[in-house]
Design brief:
About 40% of the residues lie in helices and about 15% in strands. The chain is of the alpha/beta class and about 900 residues long.
């Protein structure tokens, strides 16, 4: 700036002379002074920038502009690849958290509502001056009958039989607290013709519960879930029941059943099952998600059969609250069972909820004890229910019986089926079958000893009709009591001199809901001389009832426990709980681990059998009980691959390895190999070729079967079956293993296609079998080995599934009366022909099933084997002595 001013001053100086020149000097001096002053103040001398400094400044400027030193707030973010997996996972976590929060809030809301309702109820009670007797909801149960659009005729048949209508339905709801509704959703097009028909039917009967659900057979799991949710929200009840529309229901029995569980908060009631998971497409009840249950062939968890089941209020509320997250399987009964896994739920297995249809309900006429629900197992409902519901109702309905006690009741000495009079006297039993007295049979508690003054008690077991002649029999029998007391010492001496002639086991099945209590069975078993009992479980009621009775017991361990029991710790716990705690008062001699396991075609179950047996035996050893209690298991004859001729009998090749291990176990511990042998099934499978005489021990001379290999002769199929098993055992090198018959018998009744199932044939088979055993003869192959046989069964069992014959193998009806007059008189069987002349045979020689044993398969039973030891000569001695003493006394 100084240069510019100087130039301009030079041009003007030519005009101005000295004044201008003087001013310019002062200005220049002032500028220099200002510059120096600035340098002093700033303390910095200016220098010319070098090239390096210039580059540094340029770099710094660029960094400033690009934001490397001071990043700009609006700069772009570095782009990275988009991670969709993490985004989905994050979304799922958020949804799960929301679901959990919603569920928690809903549960809190329900609890708050419940607390509020309780407060209001208490306030209302205090206002009215009334005290509630209990805190249960008003309603007992809500029953939903699952139905469909095309099932109008089924609904009408139910309305005409067991479901009240009109005012009676309202009265049932008001007085009894029972709600019954047909449950149905809507069609895919709401408001269509199907929905209009249901609306009209509901307007007429007012007995529907409409669901917000689209109807469809494959939507039953969803429908069941929505039903429980809707019912729990609509009605406050103790229980909620689901039932199919082809099942007959007895409301009185259902009410009585549920009443026993009012105090239990979480119960799941039904006929519990655990069937195989059906993995193959095209079969009924196929499970598409079979892979969730493990390897193919595995079984479902425990759940109730789908025809009818009940759940408590808490469980219905649980379903309602968690309905959005509960998984639904293809079958609704499986779905319901899966929802309760992991919860503290008590599973109640009540077989009265799955009675078979007639003739199974005939016992109800005599016992006054109707089933809760009845249907045909063959079709999972009442077959042709529209036509047969009325018939089933007549047989199985509540009728005039109402709700009676489930216990066996004694109803007097005249019209009773079996009257038991317990009197302190000689241990003698009057047994009267039909209309007449048959015999006096000893039933001592302990083995008699010479010098004992008297027996423990006297039990006359009478069947008396209400006639003048029979009414006179009772006082005569009672008059004999003091006489028998006087001669008891003499009778004891005689009984000690007479050896026992035969010991027979008898299976005591318990798949029934009308059987007497074990305490009431005790006199019956003693009256027929039973000394051993074989159970398929370890029922504490039975074991306690028969304490100090002298009876020997074989307790059972169910197939469902094998996987658990193979653990030695679990086995020890089971033995302590079910065996050791009942010893020595109850004589437990054996444990049967599983039943017919190897023929169930369940590889996992079969692989657990031997380890479970070894674990149980190890537990007995650790408790010093192995010398007292043996371990065994029972097989049916389906384990045989070849059964004819008997000398060629052999086991199935796929079972040889497992059976070798089991036989080796029996050989080491000294326990018997048990088989279930049923000649009846061979005859039933082929009645035209198999001789009835041959299976009933009545083969005529000259028609015996001759084994072409061994040359041995067989006059009955029973011996041939046993020898085929003996041959199979010998082929594996275990000739010294003892073989016993755990089940055999003949049904007294069957379906139309079950040939030979009659009381006459049953009496012949069991009677001739007793005669054969009394002769103490073995089989043709083992003539010196006495047969150890258990008859099947003590009672008819009305709850067993399958054909009619399955429920009619019993020697006695549930009320104690004999199904047929077997008599249990082994002496008579020894000394005379029990069956008389043999009727003409359908074939001249017995036919065999070739190389398979399919005709020998046994039935499935839950039974108890009880052996009768009848003293043959003692029977006649007692009768003659009692009569002689009566005449002397008179």
């Amino acid at each position: 700036m100084g240069l510019i001013l100087g130039s301009r001053a030079k041009y003007r100086a030519g005009n101005g002379g000295n004044n201008i020149g003087g001013s310019a000097k002062w200005v220049s001096a002032l500028c220099i002074f200002s510059f120096c002053l600035g340098v002093v103040v700033v303390n910095r001398f200016w220098t010319l920038p070098t090239l390096i400094d210039t580059e540094k400044k340029d770099t710094s400027a660029r960094k400033y502009v690009t934001g490397e030193i001071y990043p700009a707030t609006r700069c772009e973010r570095k782009k990275e690849p988009f991670d969709i997996v993490s985004q989905v996972s994050q979304s799922n976590n958020i949804i799960a958290a929301l679901d959990k929060t919603i569920s928690s809030l809903e549960m809190q809301l329900i609890a708050a509502r419940s607390a509020k309702a309780e407060k209001e109820e208490k306030y209302s009670s205090s206002e009215s001056g009334l005290e509630e007797s209990n805190n249960h909801p008003k309603l007992l149960f809500v029953m939903g009958i699952i139905t469909a659009f095309g099932s109008r005729e089924r609904r009408d048949s139910i309305r005409e039989t067991w479901m009240p209508q009109g005012e009676f339905l309202k009265k049932l709801e008001k007085d009894k607290g029972i709600i019954i509704r047909f449950v149905i959703g809507h069609s895919a097009a709401p408001g269509g013709v199907s929905d209009q028909v249901i609306d009209a039917e509901d307007a007429q009967h007012k007995d529907f519960l409409r669901l917000n659900h689209i109807e469809g057979y494959h939507e039953l799991s969803a429908k069941t879930q929505i039903y429980f949710s809707t019912a729990a929200a609509k009605w406050d009840a103790n229980f909620y029941i689901k039932v199919d529309d082809d099942v007959h229901v007895n409301l009185g029995t259902i009410s009585s059943l549920l009443g026993r569980y009012l105090l239990k908060p979480r119960v799941y009631i039904g006929c519990m099952k655990s069937g195989p998971v059906l993995a193959h497409k095209g079969v009924k009840y196929h499970e598409p998600e079979y892979w969730k249950f493990g390897e193919e062939g595995n079984k479902y968890f425990r759940h109730a059969t789908g025809q009818i089941y009940a759940i408590s209020k808490d469980l219905a509320t649980y379903i309602s609250v968690n309905r959005h997250i509960l998984h639904r399987y293809a079958n609704e009964d499986v779905s319901l069972g899966s929802w309760f896994i992991g919860l503290d739920v008590e599973h109640i297995d009540d077989r009265s909820l799955c009675c078979g249809t007639p003739p199974d309900c005939e016992w109800k006429k005599q016992a006054g004890n109707p089933c809760g629900a009845s249907f045909d197992w063959s079709c999972s409902g009442i077959c042709k229910s529209v036509e047969r519901m009325e018939q089933v109702h007549q047989r199985c309905g509540e009728g005039s019986f109402g709700i009676n006690s489930r216990r066996w009741k004694m109803k007097g000495s005249r019209n009773l089926v079996a009257s038991v009079l317990a009197v302190s006297a000689a241990s003698v039993s009057f047994i009267t079958y039909g209309d007449r007295a048959v015999a006096l049979i000893p039933c001592v508690d302990q083995e008699p000893s010479i010098g004992t003054g008297s027996f423990n008690h006297f039990v006359p077991f009478l069947r008396v009709k209400n006639t003048a002649e029979n009414n006179r029999f009772m006082p005569i029998a009672m008059d004999l009591i003091p006489l028998l007391r006087r001669c008891s010492t003499f009778l004891l001496i005689v009984s000690a001199m007479v050896p026992a002639s035969v010991c027979v086991g008898i299976n005591y099945g318990q798949i029934a809901n009308n059987l007497p209590h074990p305490e009431d069975v005790k006199p019956l078993l003693k009256s027929i001389g039973a000394t051993r009992v074989k159970l398929y479980d370890a029922d504490p009621r039975v074991l306690k009832a028969f304490a100090n009775s002298g009876l020997e017991f074989i307790v059972g361990l169910g197939n469902e426990y094998l996987a658990k029991i193979r653990d030695p710790r679990q086995a020890l716990s089971w033995v302590k709980t079910n065996v050791q705690c009942f010893l020595p008062s109850t004589k437990i001699t054996s444990i049967a681990v599983g039943n017919e396991v190897l023929t169930l075609n369940d590889s996992l179950l079969s692989s657990n059998l031997l380890p479970a047996m070894e674990s149980i035996h190890g537990a007995l050893v650790s408790l010093n009980l192995d010398k007292q209690v043996m371990v065994t298991t029972a097989h049916n004859l389906g384990i045989l691959e070849v059964s004819y001729p008997p000398s060629s009998g052999s086991f199935r090749r796929d079972l040889t390895q497992k059976l070798s291990g089991i036989l080796d176990f029996h050989c080491k511990v000294g326990s018997p190999f048990l088989i279930n042998a049923y000649p009846y099934f061979a005859y039933k499978a082929n009645p035209k070729q198999v001789s009835l005489d041959f299976v009933l021990f009545e083969a005529r001379p000259g028609t015996n079967l001759v084994d072409p290999v061994s040359g041995l002769r067989y006059d009955n199929m029973f011996h041939a079956q046993i020898d085929a098993a003996y041959s199979a055992i010998e082929k594996l090198g275990y000739k010294n293993v003892c073989l016993q018959i755990s089940e055999t018998g003949w049904p007294s009744k069957g379906d139309a296609d079950e040939a030979g199932a009659t009381p006459e044939n049953a009496c012949k088979y069991n009677g001739n079998l007793l005669k054969l055993i009394a002769e103490k003869k073995g089989t043709p192959m083992r003539p010196n080995f006495n047969l150890n046989v258990h008859l099947f069964a003590l009672f008819n069992e009305n709850m067993k599934p399958g054909p009619t014959s399955e429920r009619n193998f019993g020697l006695f009806k549930p009320d104690g009366s004999p199904v047929y007059n077997l008599g249990f008189n082994v002496t008579a069987l020894q000394t005379s022909n029990s069956s008389g002349p043999a009727p003409p045979s359908s074939s001249s020689s017995p036919a065999w099933s070739g190389t398979t044993s399919s005709g020998y398969l046994s039935i499935t039973s839950n039974g108890t084997g009880k052996k009768l030891c009848l003293k043959c000569a003692l029977l006649l001695v007692w009768v003659s002595t009692a009569i002689a003493m009566a005449f002397n006394h008179s």
